[in-house]
């Protein structure tokens, strides 16, 4: 079978060379679009359900929110772990799925079960899913600083919440922009209990009056002079004065009791549970960029930086944006280190081949399997969704030293056959005979080395997610070199390994080199 493939390849040189060119072209395109990251994503496939229940104690949140949700999520298909956490006014439920589960399929199933359990939750409580990101989705963080001293933390947080966050959320690949630090602006109503008692009002009645007054209402249309006029009631609260003039009731004389008569209205910060501090210089406000699942981390960070540079033009004078955390540096250093080592290994292998074959064209035939085999690996990685990281590139680095072995043996055997030919056979027949002699054994030996990493594919969970990219790329590269050894290498030998490839002096040097190495 292998001998027939070798003979067919040599007799159909154009088809084999054209296929190789297409592989190289496809590999270049795959490398161009390859997602880059520092390490493989080791996080589990998980869906997070967040539920706000303001003002309730953790035990109440546990009994009324967390427990119903966790019991309902236990029956979600392929869910292996369900964890619930209850805090003051807040509930989190984590559903961890089995390996290989599609994240978006898991989210859709969780939504179905949320619709089922929503009737068992307290009125007005609405659970929501977390962003479609993974545990390593935190790729970038920025902070807002005021260099002029005219803006406080509340104003910086407002710039983040109402200007930067929405613009950066629209960047392709961003799942969420989480605001952190500063103070969230609030209209605060500080009610005097003595005045409530004096006017015979309840706190619930005050709350309902504020809710009713913060609303726009619509009426019907009025036609006047063949023109339609829309009747509307504008009632949204726009300032603290609007709050002060809200009527919450009436006294015994029928005089309206306004909110300012029973409470003090002020603008203040919302209660916060943490702060953001930068380099010991004091508090700042900022945002965290969370990358969507499966996106190119380096590309997302670059797009975010580009968008931030555009948004800086609209910031108030004296407000600047600084980078707090940037994973792109780690990604670039990791990929650059592995890429540099790959190039060094290829150069070393090329040099050794030229030294031992003592002929550049022959060495070229042996070395051609390296870049083509790597291109095949990148093509398969592209279709399998494996990104380029320190582990996947490490698999290619491990395979480089062995990928060229079959080609070297083929070229060396072709030289021996040409030396012994003495014009008995044509050049093509000699190359075919030399390739058939050692081709099958080389192919199967490389095939055995190719499957040597099969036990790695049995690893599961975090171990599998860490080492499988290395095993995949190493297997792809070795498999590609085995196929190339019986296809393109014999074809190239018919062009570059000729009858007069070695003169007597070069033959003598090669023999002396071989004897010297044997003596060593």
Task: Jot down its keywords.
alpha+beta; 19 helices; 520 residues; elongated; single chain; 4-stranded antiparallel sheet; disordered C terminus; 14 strands
Describe this structure in words.
By secondary structure, the chain is of the alpha+beta class. Helices cover 53% and strands 18% of the residues. It has helices at residues 2-11, 13-32, 58-73, 103-117, 153-169, 193-198, 203-213, 240-244, 259-262, 297-311, 328-357, 360-367, 369-384, 390-403, 405-421, 427-450, 461-485, 488-496, 504-519; strands at 46-52, 79-87, 90-97, 128-129, 138-146, 174-181, 185-191, 217-224, 227-233, 247-250, 256-258, 263-269, 285-291, 319-326. The protein has a four-stranded antiparallel sheet with strand order 2-3-1-4. Strands 6-13-5-14 form a four-stranded antiparallel sheet. The radius of gyration is 35 Å and the shape is elongated.
> What percentage of residues falls in helices of 4 or more residues?
40-55%
Helical stretch tally: 19
**Spatial order of strands in the largest sheet:** 2-3-1-4
Mean pLDDT: 85
Radius of gyration: 35 Å
Distance between the termini: 39 Å
Beta content comes to 15-25%
């Amino acid at each position: 079978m292998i001998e027939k493939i070798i003979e067919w390849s040599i007799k159909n040189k154009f088809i084999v060379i054209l296929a190789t060119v297409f592989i190289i072209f496809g590999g270049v395109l795959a490398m161009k679009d390859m997602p880059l990251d520092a390490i493989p994503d080791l996080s589990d496939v998980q869906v997070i359900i967040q539920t706000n229940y303001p003002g309730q104690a953790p035990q109440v949140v546990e009994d009324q929110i967390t427990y119903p949700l966790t019991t309902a999520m236990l029956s979600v298909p392929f869910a292996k772990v369900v964890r619930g956490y209850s805090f003051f006014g807040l509930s989190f439920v984590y559903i961890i799925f089995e390996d290989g589960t599609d994240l978006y399929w898991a989210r859709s199933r969780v939504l179905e079960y949320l619709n089922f359990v929503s009737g068992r939750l307290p009125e007005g409580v609405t659970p929501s899913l977390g962003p479609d990101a993974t545990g390593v989705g935190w790729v970038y963080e920025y902070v807002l600083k005021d260099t002029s001293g005219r803006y406080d933390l509340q104003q910086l947080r407002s710039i983040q919440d109402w200007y930067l966050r929405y613009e950066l959320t629209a960047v392709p690949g961003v799942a969420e922009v989480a605001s952190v630090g500063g103070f969230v602006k609030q209209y605060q109503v500080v009610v005097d209990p003595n005045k409530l008692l004096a006017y015979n009002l309840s706190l619930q009645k005050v709350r309902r009056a504020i809710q009713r007054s913060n609303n726009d209402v619509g009426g019907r249309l009025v036609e006047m002079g063949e023109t339609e006029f829309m009747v509307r009631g504008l009632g949204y609260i726009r300032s603290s004065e609007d709050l002060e003039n809200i009527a919450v009731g009436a006294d015994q004389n029928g005089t309206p009791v306004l909110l300012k008569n029973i409470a003090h209205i002020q603008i203040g910060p919302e209660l916060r549970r943490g702060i953001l501090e930068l380099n010991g210089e004091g508090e700042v406000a900022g945002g965290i960029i969370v990358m969507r699942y499966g996106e190119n981390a380096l590309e997302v960070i670059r797009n975010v930086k580009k968008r931030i540079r555009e948004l800086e033009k609209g910031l108030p004078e004296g407000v600047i944006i600084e980078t707090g955390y940037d994973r792109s540096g780690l990604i670039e250093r990791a990929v650059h280190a592995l890429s540099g080592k790959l190039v060094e290994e290829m150069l070393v292998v090329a040099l050794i081949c030229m030294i031992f074959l003592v002929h550049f064209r022959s060495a070229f035939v042996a070395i051609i399997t390296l870049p083509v085999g790597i291109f095949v690996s990148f093509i398969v990685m592209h279709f399998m969704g494996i990104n380029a990281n320190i582990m996947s590139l490490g698999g290619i680095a491990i395979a480089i030293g062995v990928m060229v072995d079959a080609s070297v043996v083929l070229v060396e055997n072709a030289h021996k056959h040409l030396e012994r030919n003495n014009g008995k056979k044509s050049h093509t027949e000699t190359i075919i005979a030399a390739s058939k002699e050692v081709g099958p054994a080389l192919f199967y030996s490389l095939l055995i080395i190719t499957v040597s990493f099969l036990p790695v594919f049995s690893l599961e969970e975090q171990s599998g997610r860490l080492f499988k990219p290395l095993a995949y790329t190493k297997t792809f590269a070795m498999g590609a070199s085995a196929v190339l050894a019986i296809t393109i290498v014999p074809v190239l030998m018919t062009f570059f390994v000729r009858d007069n490839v070695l003169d007597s002096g070069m033959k003598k040097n090669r023999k002396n080199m071989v004897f010297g190495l044997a003596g060593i």
